[in-house]
Amino acid sequence: MSIHHPRVVFVSGCSAGFGFRSARALARAGHHVVAGVRTFSRHGQQYAAELKALRAEGHRVTLVPLDVDRDESVAHAVDAAMQAAGRIDVLVNTAAYSVLGPLEACRPKQLLAMFDTNVVGALRLFRAVLPIMREQGGGRIVQITSGLGRVVLPFMGVYAASAWAQEAFAEALAYEAQGFGVEVAILEPAGYRRGGRPRKPVGDEARLSAYQDALIAFGERVNQSDPAEGDPEEVARAVVELVEAEKVPLRTPVGEAAVELLRMRRTLSAEAFEREIYERTGLHAVYEDEEEEADVSAVLAAAEAAVSPGESDDETPAGRE
Ligand SMILES: NC(=O)c1ccc[n+]([C@@H]2O[C@H](COP(=O)([O-])OP(=O)(O)OC[C@H]3O[C@@H](n4cnc5c(N)ncnc54)[C@H](OP(=O)(O)O)[C@@H]3O)[C@@H](O)[C@H]2O)c1
Predict the structure, then answer these.
(1) 119 contact partners, CB below 8 Å, separation of at least 6
(2) Sequential pLDDT tens for the chain (321 residues)
(3) What is the distance, to the nearest Å, from the Cα of residue 188 to the centroid of all Cα atoms in its chain?
């Protein structure tokens, strides 16, 4: 693809977070953005207003309803994009959510629902855009996964499993679709302050008490070691670069924590890497303490604080962004 001409970019998950920021940055860079939005609920009002303001300023932003859990919604959104823009040069997949907590406390239904959005949702979009890109003679897919797309931290395993699956799909697609001129780029962000809904806690609270001490240690240690967050605009800038680049690498980690974690995985022995994870998550020796009565809400609050420092709920977006 040539670097200079404006692209038609379909972005999923634009009611908040990286999707919104990417849509805004791409529109400002002169691209025609088709922004897929499920709901502009209370937390998303400011983002809705900003996307509309961009249009009023003359930027090309087309809003389309999109629920990636539903085949027909994906089909309608892609049809609407084609009607508005006549082509889709790039798909940027960001729509997803994370579930936080010990694996044992995740009910199978909760896991399946998350996979339906994060993994099958990505597949639904791939399936909808690939025939269009093939017909056009090429295109590009940018899949946002995570710094946990190739490594795992305790209590993030449920979510990480979906990020690993997204990576596997995207990597396979890179091989399978290159013959049609379709390139795939995987973007692996570190943890950033988020603009959307809070992470969902694992649902089976009765199973949490056994993990109380470990969750609190995890919360304290992660907060200590990562006191300052990066600027989430880094992710939007990386998306614009991946949209505009002449050629794209298969993987791009963004943010210091993601770069470091992936470097450790690459360079340390398996044993040394495991030791680092125990050390950084405060889990060693936790289980030696005597059992105490569990306070489930404190446990979940500590865990949420650990992975989203500075953010306590999704109903007060002002000041968060
Ligand atoms: N934030 C981080 O620190 C971080 C770090 C690494 C990786 N990531 C990954 O990056 C991606 C985006 O994260 P984010 O921080 O931008 O999350 P976010 O702020 O919560 O935004 C998620 C977006 O996805 C949308 N979405 C969720 N389910 C959907 C569905 N079924 N159909 C359509 N849209 C749906 C949400 O729409 P609604 O408003 O309708 O829910 C929202 O627009 C996710 O894959 C996340 O796991 C995030």
Answers:
(1) 162, 165, 166, 169
(2) 444 589 999 999 999 999 999 999 999 999 999 999 998 776 678 888 899 899 999 999 999 999 999 999 999 999 999 999 999 999 999 999 999 999 999 999 999 999 999 999 999 999 999 999 999 999 999 999 999 999 999 999 999 999 999 999 999 999 999 999 999 999 999 988 766 667 788 888 889 889 988 888 888 877 665 545 689 999 999 999 999 999 999 999 999 989 999 999 999 999 999 999 998 888 875 655 545 555 666 666 666 665 554 443 333 322 222
(3) 8
| Minimum CA distance residue for ligand 1 atom 45 | 96
Instruction: Look at the pTM and tell me if it is higher than 0.70.
Output: yes
Does 196 sit in the ligand 1 pocket, CB within 6 Å?
yes
Residue nearest to atom 23 of ligand 1 (CA): 13
Q: Which fold has domain 8-203+228-268?
A: Rossmann fold (3.40.50)
Q: How far apart are CA 3 and CA 56, in angstroms?
A: 26
Instruction: Report the DSSP beta bridge partners of residue 100.
Output: 201
Q: Where are the domains of the chain?
A: 8-203+228-268
CB of 189 closer than 6 angstroms to any ligand 1 atom: yes
